[in-house]
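Take just one protein record:
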Amino acid sequence: MPTDPTARQVADLIARYTPEMADAITACRRKLCARVPRGYELVYDNYNALAIGYAWADKASASLVSIAAYPRWVTLFFLYGKDLPDPDGLLEGDGVRVRSIRLDAPGDLDRPAVRRLLDLALAPHEADFAAAPPLKTVIKAITARQRERRPA
């Protein structure tokens, strides 16, 4: 069990999922932390999902990508995904800004097409990330009312 209070709190939030989902969330998180070693990992335990954004500053508007953990899957969100080139047709959604990919497994983050999308999404703020401190996890919000984290 982590000794850092924030790390312990995030571990407790993830532990509310089934062991299989907790493993998937942890693996996705580990891969994204390796891809974004500087900046802020912003944690929001919302009504529908546990969302973890990766940002160059300690504010939601600086988040460029995030994962959201639902009871049965993890989704990778590109918060400015509408304008990303997507020759492989991976991005889902038709909102004004956000696009996503439902991950079948954490290994999907290693697929070349997904890695390209991550690179493109993060590139506009490469200098901001480089100037940021080593990745710091910040709990931004925990909603009192939440859906069950395990499938019914």
About this structure: DSSP finds four helices and six strands in the chain.
